[in-house]
């Protein structure tokens, strides 16, 4: 197959295979050209190495691989996080969890725990946005923790990394704020087999028949890991707000409520330990 020789040829090759916005992004990253140049100068020559890179990326994207895994990064809270198939691709909705957490970190020091840190997106963002906080992050996956550590080295956040299952990674410790974006998809949900999600680690997504097993496990154990008056914040599915609040209340939390994401959907439920 001959390689595209110009920006215009390249976008024509991608047409019908991947959405136009993704083709433009991949062409920008493959060529180093600006978005304006790609759209404004279709006749401009594309170097052969950039053309080969772009053509290979389009084939991978057309086969379903997420753009973030192809490029090896995704933006979260204004920073570029490296991602690999060992970690969930950070979602824009999770920025709400970060905002809710930042609103609860006082000016003085606070001990903050991120459970199921994946790429480290939440923990590193909290460490950078609230440098007065002492941030610890746990994941059960050593491969995910390796990605998170490397992101912290690149981005500069001070985080203590621990391997383990939920609070067992920090047994005997107490925190002022615990945040988590745990797996919350029902194990038999057909979405797990469709689209970009099928490339992501199953252990980062599925959580029992209703998708609530990990939310229950974390909320049930959190009172023993929080200081009095401490907060637990949990991200969940758009249709899990009622269930998450009920779980928090039965675990003994007060001031239980749910915050909505930019689409107006229930996304983060929280409660305070009396
Ligand atoms: C939905 S992903 C969230 C990743 C990241 N915090 C984010 O928001 O992009 C859930 C993470 O929880 C981790 N995980 C799953 N079960 C766990 C367990 N029992 N203990 C600790 N981490 C767990 C997975 O490895 C995965 O990294």
Automatic annotation (TrEMBL):
PROSITE patterns documented for this protein: N6_MTASE
Any one of the GO BP annotations: methylation
EC number of this enzyme: 2.1.1.297
InterPro entries given in the database record: DNA_methylase_N6_adenine_CS, HemK-like, N5-glutamine_MTase, PrmC_N, RF_methyltr_PrmC, SAM-dependent_MTases_sf, Small_mtfrase_dom
Xref: Pfam families: MTS, PrmC_N
SUPFAM superfamilies, A to Z: S-adenosyl-L-methionine-dependent methyltransferases
Keyword tags: Methyltransferase, S-adenosyl-L-methionine, Transferase
Leader peptide range in chain numbering: none
Glycoprotein found in the keyword field: no
Binding site for S-adenosyl-L-methionine: 116-120, 139, 166, 181
Protein's name according to its UniProt entry: Release factor glutamine methyltransferase
């Amino acid at each position: 197959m001959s390689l595209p020789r110009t920006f215009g040829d390249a976008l024509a090759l991608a047409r019908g295979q991947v959405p136009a916005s993704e083709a433009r992004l991949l062409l920008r990253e493959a060529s180093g050209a600006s978005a304006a140049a790609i759209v404004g100068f279709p006749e401009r020559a594309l170097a052969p190495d950039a053309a080969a890179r772009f053509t290979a990326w389009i084939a991978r994207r057309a086969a379903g691989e997420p753009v973030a895994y192809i490029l090896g990064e995704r933006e979260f809270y204004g920073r570029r996080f490296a991602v690999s198939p060992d970690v969930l691709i950070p979602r824009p909705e999770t920025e709400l969890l970060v905002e809710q957490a930042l609103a609860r970190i006082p000016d003085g020091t606070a001990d903050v725990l991120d459970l199921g840190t994946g790429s480290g997106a939440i923990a590193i963002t909290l460490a950078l946005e609230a440098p007065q906080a002492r941030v610890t992050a746990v994941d059960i996956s050593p491969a995910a923790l390796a990605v998170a550590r490397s992101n912290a080295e690149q981005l500069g956040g001070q985080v203590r990394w621990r391997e383990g299952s939920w609070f067992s990674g920090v047994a005997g410790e107490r925190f002022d704020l615990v945040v988590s974006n745990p797996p919350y998809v029902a194990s038999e949900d057909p979405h797990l087999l469709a689209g970009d999600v099928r490339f992501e680690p199953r252990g980062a997504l599925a959580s029992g028949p209703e998708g609530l097993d990990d939310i229950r496990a974390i909320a049930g154990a959190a009172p023993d890991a929080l200081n009095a008056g401490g907060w637990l914040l949990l991200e969940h599915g758009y249709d899990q707000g009622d269930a998450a609040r009920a779980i928090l209340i039965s675990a003994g939390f007060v001031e239980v409520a749910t915050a909505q994401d930019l689409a107006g959907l229930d996304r983060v439920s929280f409660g305070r330990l009396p």
